[in-house]
Amino acid sequence: MSDTDIDADPRPLIGEPVSLDLLNTRWIEDGEHKDLLTSVDGLRIWLRSSGLGDRFAADAPTLEKTRIARDALGAAVDGRGDAAATARADAVLDHGRIRAMLTTEGPGERAEFADPAWGPGWTAVRDYLDLLRTAPDRIRACAHEACVLHFFDTSRNGTRRWCSMAVCGNRAKASRHYARTKDS
Questions:
Q1: How far apart are CA 72 and CA 76, in angstroms?
Q2: Are 50 and 21 in contact (CB under 8 A)?
Q3: What pLDDT is attached to residue 2?
Q4: What is the pLDDT of residue 176?
Q5: Cβ contacts of residue 1 below 8 Å, gap of 6+?
Q6: Which of 55, 88, 142, 143 could form a disulfide with 72 if both were Cys (CB 3.0 to 4.6 A apart)?
Q7: Which phi and psi (to 5°) does residue 126 adopt?
Q8: Which of 130, 21, 30, 13 is nearest to 74 (CA)?
Q9: Within 10 A of 164 (CB to CB), how many other CB atoms are there?
Q10: Hey, how many other C-beta atoms are within 10 angstroms of the C-beta on 76?
Q11: What's the chain look like in SS3?
């Protein structure tokens, strides 16, 4: 796979915080379920797209651990407050830690992993903790019934409902219009 191919992230929603971006490696396109993390090449695309490409290797062990972390994260996000889902996310977090350090610029932190293959997944679950601390009510699943994407609502008033107004929001409007005109 060339660098040009790697840059072509096929997902409909990118650029979310890394925790939600990992969840968005699964999506529905034309009624068909898609999964970017079915191969090391897909992992490489996600790592680069999410800004983690220079920190972690794209290899089979990392792919396996990242998929485990994605499943645990999905359970935690979609089942917030569920003890089993929380335990799964905590199990991923057990594979890394934050090391405090003093740098020439002042205080710093660095993530450390006994097994570097857990790095991307651990980073995503750790990011979810940061989102929960910041604004848990702004972590959302798209409101369209045929969409599985997640986003962090950065709108001023916090009322965003769709992963994309141009896609899911427009489909919802079109469905409502069709229903109104059909009844007339």
A1: 6
A2: yes
A3: 47
A4: 58
A5: 41, 44
A6: 88
A7: -60, -40
A8: 21
A9: 16
A10: 25
A11: CCHHHHHCCCCCCCCCCHHHHHHCCEEEECCEEEECCCCHHHHHHHHHHCCCCCCCCCCHHHHHHHHHHHHHHHHHHHCCCCHHHHHHHHHHHCCEEEEEEEECCEEEEEEEECCHHHHHHHHHHHHHHHHHHHCHHHEEECCCCCCCCEEECCCCCCCCCCCCHHHHHHHHHHHHHHHHHHHC
Both tokens assigned to 60: 């089979």
Cβ-Cβ contacts under 8 Å for 166 (sequence gap 6 or more): none
Cα 37 to Cα 66: distance, rounded to the nearest angstrom: 8
Written as one letter, the residue type at 74 is: G
Give the distance from CA 102 to its chain's centroid: 31
pTM value? 0.88
Q: Divide the 184 residues of the chain into consecutive groups of 10 and give the mean pLDDT of each group.
A: 63 96 96 97 97 97 98 96 96 97 96 97 98 96 93 93 79 58 66
Q: Tokens standing for 10?
A: 């096929």
Phi, psi of 50 (to 5 degrees): -90, 0
Which tokens go with 68? Answer: 């485990």
